[in-house]
Design brief:
5-stranded antiparallel sheet; alpha+beta; single chain; binds adenosine monophosphate; 140 residues; 5 strands; globular
């Protein structure tokens, strides 16, 4: 099966602006930055999304957080603040099927979630029908 873009970047088969690499993670600048600092951090193991993480992936996952902290400190984002985001699946807006975390900062980032008009309509429908409101009760 053909490698996707992040697999190619991980394997040095596609150019990128590399920010950091070690045994567990690769970090590179996002090609279409949404803020002065916009870095993508991926595990060196191909994991499609947060839906697909396993207990055995814990070293990769913990190192993503540790490297995010390290990069933020290096860029002095720790002083002003930043955001670490992973998009999962269709509603999450995930475009590349390879688990990745966006480290974003360098300006105030505003509201965390900005719903499109179409979602606001759906939200109103959910709120007006309490029985359909599945989000209030979790059965974990
Ligand atoms: P997501 O929507 O969470 O899947 O984010 C995918 C991100 O990958 C987007 O922000 C893209 O700008 C970024 N991206 C896609 N291709 C590349 C690439 N070749 N190098 C760096 N970033 C990329």
């Amino acid at each position: 099966m053909e490698k996707n873009i992040f697999e190619k970047i991980r394997d040095n088969e596609s150019p990128c602006e590399l920010v950091y690499k070690d045994k567990y993670v690769t970090a590179f600048n996002d090609i279409h930055p949404d803020a002065p600092a916009h870095i993508l951090i991926i595990p060196n193991k191909k994991i499609a999304s947060l839906n697909d993480i396993l207990e055995e992936d814990s070293d990769y996952l913990s190192n993503i957080l540790l490297v995010a902290k390290k990069i933020a400190k290096e860029l002095e984002l720790d002083k002003t603040g930043y955001r670490l985001i992973t998009n999962c699946g269709k509603d999450g807006g995930q475009e590349v099927d390879y688990l990745h975390f966006h480290l974003v900062g360098g300006v105030p980032l505003g509201k965390m979630i900005s719903l499109p008009k179409s979602s606001k309509k759906i939200l109103k429908e959910i709120e007006s029908n309490a029985e359909k409101n599945i989000w209030k009760t979790l059965h974990l």
